[in-house]
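Notes for week 9. Today we move from apo structures to complexes. The key idea is that a small molecule is not decoration. When we ask for a structure prediction with manganese (II) ion present, the ligand SMILES becomes part of the input, just like the chain. The input block below holds both the sequence and the ligand string. Read it once before you look at the output, and try to guess where the molecule might sit.
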Amino acid sequence: MAFLERHRGETHVAALQDYPDPDAISCALAYRVLAARYDIDVDIVYEGRISHQENLALVHLLDIELTRFTEALPLDRYDGAIFIDNQGTTTRLLDRLQQAGVAPLAIIDHHAPQGLVTAEFTDIRPLGAVATILTEYIRSGRILELDPAREEHIYLATALLHGLRSETNGFIGAGQEEYEAGGYLANYADPRLLESILNVQRSRGTMEVIRIAVSDRMVREGFSLAGVGYLRHADRDAIPQATDFLLTEENVHTACVYGILQGEGEREVIVGSLRTDKVTLDVDQFLKSALGSDLRGRYYGGGRSGAGGFEIPIGFLEGMLDSDQATLKWDTFNRQIRGKLLRATGVDVPEDA
Ligand SMILES: [Mn+2]
């Protein structure tokens, strides 16, 4: 790859979205392995947290080194930034990297083009997973030949297979490209490792969020909406898990779950997740028009085919004096979000929404 050749010997930062998923993590690992062929050092950095039990298992079992961003990490040591499974819109690292003068070198993604960052190398394709794209780079054999006897390569193939599987809901949402990539990776991946990654159990916090989502959900014409109130940053991944669960209800084609993340010394923010089976619903467009953008014109939400999410900062209303105020704050945000989403779906908005 000419791009890697041009950057031989450099040190890159692979910037992941704030709450990295298996697609992002496995692709960053793939980039690190590919770049190493050109003596490029890659640090995989994210801000936020790894909260899903499966993702923790992935990182631990496959021994993937990730760096959680803290102020102590000097970003100016990097020669360039690579955005993988994002285009700078879902990572707080973009602003920090810009401030540190680190140029965006590459964007490899499968979300709708966001147009916020331009880079020397761009590969944005509407595929089921970014893991499909990285697997294609490997399959071309032009950079690296996978060796089924090398542990590092077995781990890489297992990670990418897990990325594909998880991003396409167990290959249900996969296209021909994902099946082809999966077929190739199956020659190198370790099925027992994959099984250990998948066999992790849900935390108590996650179970609780799912319980609230189920009992408080509002279903209107196939849309299932649930605000789950306050939750800990560590339980953030309970939101997409609860959304997936609501989508399994009979006659529900679209589900959305959101809540306020909070915690000692952490930013307070509303996060939401949306999933749909409705082929005519453009999730990216839907969330952008329903929730709008901030003063700088950055949209609160976005997505890809079938799935999306949003993040709304609490801003000045962050923190609280007492529980009455906390309840009031949640009610206000809950009504606002529910109202906007319902209006955008075009269903009748109930009086109390
Ligand atoms: Mn992805």
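The chain has a mean pLDDT of 93.
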